[in-house]
């Protein structure tokens, strides 16, 4: 089985060998690339290296250090993706992120899980399920998103939340496990227009 076939198999949610030599090699390469990426603060210089690392990226992606991925090639981000400090994405299965998405510090997206049986886990068994995040979402500091989760457009996830199940669009959600607190409505508007500070 070649590398592309291995990644396709992993995306099915079937158990796979986490200790596979090909997967280890891709992880090692991703570590080298992210080490370099984390030294660059100029968005124009960072973008091509980010695109080298991930499967696809829209316009103006930017990540603060220290950004970490498992493989990188299973990550797909839309336009103007921004991740604050210490973001981690374990992309054993695809991670798909929409346009204009913001991550606070220490956000983690974890598609992979070790197997529950101790012997299978010792033998390197893992499973992975995809994570999808819609357009214009904001995940605040220290949010963890677990395997198989889908988050709808415009949704905000509060700091410290552990997202264990799907969240709909247009809601504020928080907690461990994360729960919908309320819809986001017109009452949340402040009439901010994007103007710079004025006297």
Structure characterization notes:
This protein is of the alpha/beta class and 199 residues long. It contains four helices and 20 strands. The chain has helices spanning 3-10, 21-37, 43-53, 118-122; strands spanning 16-17, 56-57, 62-63, 68-69, 75-77, 82-83, 88-90, 95-97, 102-103, 108-110, 112-114, 125-128, 131-133, 138-139, 144-145, 150-151, 156-157, 162-163, 171-174, 179-183. The strands form four sheets. A seven-stranded mixed beta sheet has the order 3-6-9-14-17-19-20. A hairpin with a 4-residue loop joins strand 19 and strand 20 (179-183). Helix 2 (21-37) runs antiparallel to helix 3. The longest helix has 17 residues, at 21-37. The radius of gyration is 18 Å and the shape is globular.
Summarize the topology:
Elements: H1 3-10, E1 16-17, H2 21-37, H3 43-53, E2 56-57, E3 62-63, E4 68-69, E5 75-77, E6 82-83, E7 88-90, E8 95-97, E9 102-103, E10 108-110, E11 112-114, H4 118-122, E12 125-128, E13 131-133, E14 138-139, E15 144-145, E16 150-151, E17 156-157, E18 162-163, E19 171-174, E20 179-183
Parallel strand pairs: 2-5, 3-6, 4-7, 5-8, 6-9, 7-10, 8-13, 9-14, 10-15, 13-16, 14-17, 15-18, 17-19
Antiparallel strand pairs: 1-12, 11-12, 19-20
Helix pairs in contact: 2-3
